[in-house]
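G.,

No rush on this.
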Amino acid sequence: MKNKKMILRLLASAAAILSIAVMFLGFRLRNGVTIRAGETEIPPHDVITYRQDDTRWANDTLGDSSFTMKSSGCLVSCIASAVSMESGTEMTPGELNKIFTKSNVYDKEGNVQWTAIDQMEGYAAQAYPRVSQQEIEQCLLTGHYPIVRVRVNAIGNFHYILIAGTEDGDYICMDPLKDELTRLSQYAGRVYAVRMVQVDA
């Protein structure tokens, strides 16, 4: 009888843990959209990659905030990559961060203000109202580079990566925390927001 009660307690505990895990996962994945690349191949070419923790700018702060490029510079690094590829002139995340700081692009928490970028001469920013495969691929086909918000390891903290093209039904991405190009499927193909910054070439 004691063994039976123990087994029942263990089963109840396991069920409770599983229920908590499912709720946690559901909470982490809310508002995300799972997308897969279409049939049209858009191969990436000469992708300029940057790491947010590069020692040349890792300790630079985002505007007047206490946040640094190393801790929170994924978005700026992605924008720098897009700007460099579109303009044909390399602009490092460190250089772009200085421009953004001077132009008051950041709020006090170090968050990028899209309207502030849009007001900068030579820059245009777009925050898409929804996540869709069509808009991402239209962006690529017109020579621009969509920046998407994902979760690290699919369920971790929010993180920004840049989509550089498509291959074998997957999106090829530049992740500012990795040395090599990645695939969107490595983040479970789940996207929480789409952004784009373009410059006058």
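When you get to it, here's the other one too:
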Amino acid sequence: MSDLLIKDGYLVFPDFTIRTNVYSEDGVIKSIGSSVPRTADVVIDAFNKYVLPGAIDEHVHCRDPGMTYKEDFESCTKSAAAGGITTIFDMPNTLPPVDDAHNLKEKAKIIAEKAYVDFALYGVIHGSNIDKFEEMLQAGAIGFKIYLAHSTGNIKPPDDGVIVEALKKSVKMNVIIVFHAENDSIINFFSKKLKESGRKDPKAHMEARPALAEEDAIRKVSLFAERTGAVILIAHVSSAFGISALKEAKDRGAKVYGETCPHYLLLDESAYDKYGNMIKVNPPIRSAVDKEALWKGIENGTITSIGSDHAPHLLEEKSKDVWESASGIIGVQTILPLMLNEALKGKISINKAVSLLAENPAKLFGIYGKKGTISINADADFVLFDPSQTFKINEEQIFSKSKNSPFIGWELKGKIIGTILRGKKIYDGEKIIEKTGKQLKKF
């Protein structure tokens, strides 16, 4: 038996924070409060430190297999560990795409030995694999991704009939479907028009993917979800119109949830002048009005989770003109520090950050009780956070192969000084010290 005692820390829960102790045995939390044992194999004095549940990043592209020149599962999960993320959900647009049971199992086999944090895998539904839905679940998929618009991997969006059929299947199998929600035909029209006009500046990408494209796609799949009874998550919501569409669907009783990302919350279109194509992402970063609408969406519960949409690319892939430059920035290592910085600045509470990055994604994907919480019988996944320190994001500290982040150089309040996965410290605030990740499965 191995045990861990974290004593005298500020344990952060979604609704309150309390100064107390937490004790685990063999990677599982056994007691909380004054009744914990006085000693253990490993004792951590957390005086004046916050102890958070290990964070979950539900939206990560580790690029493994097939694009490991951009990133591989080792560098990706090291980045996660250094950022206080103890569980990631990896997206299916790898090479080959995760569109049947064989590819899912092969991907799991390739990446398992590289994992520094726990992980789960999505399957993808496109125009010709709806018959593979059940077999992907049985092979271990945590959920499914449907792309309604072009993105990395060139996975063709399915037609509406396939989407409805997938939602019906998801209800029977009690599994969630995540949507990249943009209207592809609107994007294609305006992209062609802007290209023909000679536009090549970074803001052309924003104008080619207007908020209308997002709003329309959200309204459509929300209606499908409402009629089928399915539970869906709209990934990377970026606009005020998208928030309105989400809220209206939720108010009607649709089981529609919203995710946004730090780059939409912390940047707006003025950042294109400084960062250029570095911040080209799908959907694009938009106006200050959109940014503020997203914060209000968090406040009123329309947005229930935050994902990084960690999307590594080589520098040369980001350095082309706006139409050829790759879309995506890295984020799995910075998502939690950025949100905790906002908490210490008073934008949100630290408890709300825990809800958005631990409790809510765990509940949505059916792993709550094991992950996303500091509670008896949960995995002993913790983040040790020192609010008295300051932390500057720099390239040398980024474990990802890619450095395509606009947040490099930002100075943040607070610092992650330790990440613990199932009772073992995997990051000590400076270096990675343990590889112990394993796959989580829906069934």
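The mean pLDDT is 97. Residues 247 and 308 are 22 Å apart (CA to CA).

Enjoy the weekend,
O.
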